[in-house]
Amino acid sequence: MLRQKRMLQRKQQRLQQQQQMPQQQQQMQQQQQQILQQQQQMQQQQQQQQMLQQQQQMQQQQQQKKKKHHHHLLLLNACVLLFFFVVVI
């Protein structure tokens, strides 16, 4: 009787361990997925920040150019218009 009980207990223990293993693996996978998601979110945030910074830089450059090159732009426009008139005529 004792032997049988021990055998049964061992079998049950083995079964429990086997059941626990997949659960642990699943937990591990879930944790890994969470970490990956967090990393992706971080990357996305960084990309968004970079995009914003680039946009800001572009705007600043445009503003600076507008201030500096306003006269040049007027001259260029005049030249282009003259050129078109010459070509058309």
UniProtKB/TrEMBL annotation:
Superkingdom of the source species: Eukaryota
Disordered: annotated segments: 1-20
Keyword terms, alphabetized: Membrane, Transmembrane, Transmembrane helix
Biased segments, Basic residues type: 1-13
Transmembrane stretches, start-end: 72-88
Protein name stated in the entry: Uncharacterized protein
Species of origin: Eimeria mitis
